[in-house]
Structures are given as C-alpha cells and as structure tokens.
Amino acid sequence: MFGSNKKSGRAIDPDQKEMIENARLRIKQKRGLFTHFVVFLIGSVGLIVVGVRQDSVEGSPMLQRESLLETDWWIWVIMLWFLILAYHAFNVFITKRILGPEWEKRQYEQLVQKQVDRIQKLQVKVDKNHPLPDVKLDNPMAPLPKAKVITMIAAAGENQELGKNGEMVWHLPDDFKRFKALTTGHTIIMGRKTFDSFDKPLPNRTHIVVTRDKGYKSNDAIIVHDMKTALAAAGNDSNPFIIGGGEIYSLGMPFSNKIELTRVHGTFDADAYFPRIDKSKWNLIKTESHGTDERHKYSFDYETWERVSS
C-alpha cells in the first residue's frame, strides 16, 4: 500500500518495547557480571602472589621494610600491567567469542521467543474460556472465525501493479487518508523492503515485519519469519492488516478473509504486483468511485472484497 513514505508506524507498543529493552539490559548485565568475575579471579591471584613475595623477605623488620620500599613500586606496576594485559587478552580471545554477537543474537531470539510463547499461552487461555466455532486453522484455506478479520489492504493498477523500486508510481492523497483511517490502532504486517522504505514508524500502529533474514533486527518492529507467526504475534488485535509488498500479499492471501483494494485506473511500469483475486473464492461487496482532480492524476475505485464462506 505504501512505498515511497519511507518507514512507518509505531512499530511496537509500549509493553512490547519495554520487554525488548529489559531483554537487552539483561544481556548487558550478564556480560558485565561475567567480566567482573574474570577480573576478580585474576586480581585474587595477583594479590596472592604479592602476599607470598612479602612473606619471603628475610631479615629484621627494618630490612623487610627497606626491601619492600625498594621493590613495591615495580611489583605494583607489573601487577597493574599484567591485570590490564590479562583482561585485554581475555576480552579479545574469550569474551568476544563466548559472549559476542552470536551469543547476543541467541539471547535476543530466546527472549523474543518467550514473548511469542507468552502470547500463544494467553491465546490458548482465551480460546479455552471463550471458545470460537470449530475451524481447522491448520488448513490455511479454511475460513477464519468471524471474530478475527484479517485484511489485506493495497492499491494496485489495472494489471495488478503495486510499484517499482520500492516506490509507488502514483500519488493519491485521499487513498493515503483512507489507509490511515482504516489501519490506525491496529497491527500492520509487512515485508522487510516495505518497512525499510518508511522514513519512520507509522503512529499508533504496531509493526510486524516478515523476513527470511534471521539476522534482521529493528527497535521499531516485531521481527518474524513466517506469516503464521506474524498473525500469532498480532495477539488480541481482532483486525490486523497485511500491507505488502507483493510477496507478503501472496503469503497472506490464504489467511485473509477481507481485501481493501484501491483499484487505480491506469497501467504502469512496475516490478511488484498484487496477486490476482480468484472471483470463485472472493465476493466484491462494496465499491466507491473517486474521480480525477487537481490532487489526483488518476481516477480510482475503493473495492471491498470478502472471502466466500465454504
């Protein structure tokens, strides 16, 4: 639906953001504790060595004092240098390997997975206390419960064109206003390229990004790797929206039961396309025309489609 607006939505609600920030703080705390423990061990060994050196000085108390005065300064310099060197070496050869980016990534994924598991447990509890009609959700083509409306929202040309090079090939302000009115307060699901095209997250919307890139991270969105997980992460939102791009629309088509399509009257040079709507499976229930004017170069229709009940 969007393309040239460069980075959209409030990616993440306050509770989710707080959970991720807490996860990062925990990772930092674990690394700090580990480093502190290493310094403690090395420092203890160093102090023991100094103690043994002091106990080995022979002669009268005056001779011991003079000997210590002569040697203490370089012993402590060597000890300080050794501590710094040992810590540096440990940090380079051990800590960076054991607690490096891969470790942090695993910790992050584990904590995010706990969040997803928590959402799923809450959903199981809700389903148990408030059961929905018996529907086989393992079959993506099965109709979803009426209480859960999954909507694909898009603008496409006469030949299903969505845009080119991550940009829309038209400018329709009224369509942008309609997109905002429909999606505000809801979860929006998109691909990585669509998310990266936004200047900043869209306000008052939770962003979920579907990507095959296991290393992709963002402070402004929930990152998942398949459509089922994306819909599970939408939690209690009764009407999440799938907003593109082309591949995400194709992935979302089997799960959706509603399409809000802006049909732009024209043909365009494009490299991304909306999947064709199978009219044997979808009914056009509403259409509204919008003509050209000084702000809209192309005429277009707002089309609302609903999946045929089986």
How do you describe this structure in short?
By secondary structure, this protein is α/β, with parallel strands linked by helices.
List the helices and strands and how they pair.
Elements: H1 14-55, H2 61-98, H3 101-129, E1 151-156, E2 161-163, H4 173-183, E3 187-191, H5 192-196, E4 206-210, E5 222-224, H6 227-233, E6 241-244, H7 246-252, E7 258-264, E8 272-273, E9 282-290, E10 300-307
Parallel strand pairs: 1-6, 1-7, 3-4, 3-6, 4-5
Antiparallel strand pairs: 2-8, 7-10, 9-10
Helix pairs in contact: 1-2, 1-3
Written account of the structure:
The protein is an alpha/beta fold and 310 residues long. It has two domains: 15-111; 143-307, Dihydrofolate Reductase, subunit A (3-Layer(aba) Sandwich). 45% of the residues lie in helices and 17% in strands.
Structure characteristics:
310 residues; alpha/beta; Dihydrofolate Reductase, subunit A; 2 domains; 8-stranded mixed sheet; two-stranded antiparallel ribbon; 10 strands; 45% helix; elongated; disordered N terminus
